[in-house]
Amino acid sequence: MSSTTNEDSPRLPPPRFLRSPGSITGRLTLLYIGSTAALLLLAAAFLYWGLSVSLARQDHALVSGKLQVLRLLLREHQDKPDALASEIEHEASANAVLRYYLRVLDEQGRVRIETSGMSSFLPALVFPEPGAAWNGAPRVTAWTSPSGRHYLLLSGFAATGPTAAEHRILQVAIDVAHNEIILADYRWKLLVALIIGLLLAATAGVLVTRTGLRPIASLARATHSITVSRLGERLEPADWSVELRDYAAAFNGMLDRLQDSFRRLETFSSDLAHALRNPINNLRGEAEVALTRVRTPEEYRLTLSSALEEFQRLSRLIEGLLFIARTDNPQTTLERVAFEVRREMDAVRDFYEALAGEHRVLVTCQGEAWLTGNPMLVRRAISNLLANALKHTPAGGAVTMTVGARPDASVEICVRDTGRGVTAEHLPHVFERFYQADRSQDSAAQGAGLGLAIVQGIMRLHGGTASIASTPGQGTSVTLLFPPTGPGGQS
Asked: Quick one: which of 177, 269, 311, 336 has the fewest CB in 10 Å?
């Protein structure tokens, strides 16, 4: 058996989302700001796109409408050139916000009339070809001038005169720079709204997070108030919010384990002091008696021999405590090999054959099984059980040791005796350290009460269990159950 220890106690890793140290309030606030910023950006992008599409749609409708107005003027006001000139040359150029341009060409492509100055930046050749018929569907195209200004262009046919015998080519253009101005202004407003929204989100995030974490601070204060002297106090899960009830219940469970550990530690300290008191008192008493007067060499030899027995008892006690401490260490590992259990049982029986003969107790072994584990520790467990059985079995009794494999590949070792048995109130405690069901016997003969605790420690190292069943006056049966052994000898 080997063990590995660290100077520092192992620490549980924090949850993944808390791996980096910092403030939960700050982290939640950042998450709140980030989610708010994402929502605001999505909303701003949607509104900006909607405005852009709406403006483009209005521009398309405007150029189409102007084309229809021109057609109406040519058809109804052919004999009123002033009205036509007013619409084309003056009214279009007079609008400083929404600038549009109109042109009328004859069938040979000669300009008949146009908005003043239009030819200097919108020549007729840049316009799309009109539809195949004079009433063909209008086709709006975008065009960018060499100076970088953007226009929407539309061409179409129109009939003129009372008999509609003559045709004209109509060209309509609109400067969409006003859209860019509107969108740029809208972008600035959206940016200001986004910044203000993020500031408000940060403020709200801090307030909401601190308010939301207030129950955790209250729970922390409640847990800080529980000290070693107040381990009996518990948190009431129903008094806390739903999210903290599991934590309160888990904290109560931890307090239960701590209280049980303190109780066991107090019992262990008391039992240890009791176990050490007798041999130390015996050693001191023998030394004091030996020093009261001069003794013969034989008397000194008897005193030293008695002291040696007490030293051996103390040595076994310390060895047992150290062994149990190693078995309690979760980092302790075993050197495992496959071995035949029956051979170890026979070796233990042969070792105790003389003692069994002295007590007139028949010891028998039955069964066969192979086990992957530590043979020295398994032999020690069987030895402790047999020694305990011989100690409590009267003359003429019997102890039977059996071993066998279960259908699930687990291995069971059982030691049965026909001794006095153990009463029901003692059974739950027999595997505890220093526990002795019968304290009326001589303490030297009784032992320190570590035998079954060592057996349980050995089973814990093997991943198995130890159980006991007893009927007063009929005997006791202790069963060791080893789990199925996997590949490589690991249980």
From this structure: 269
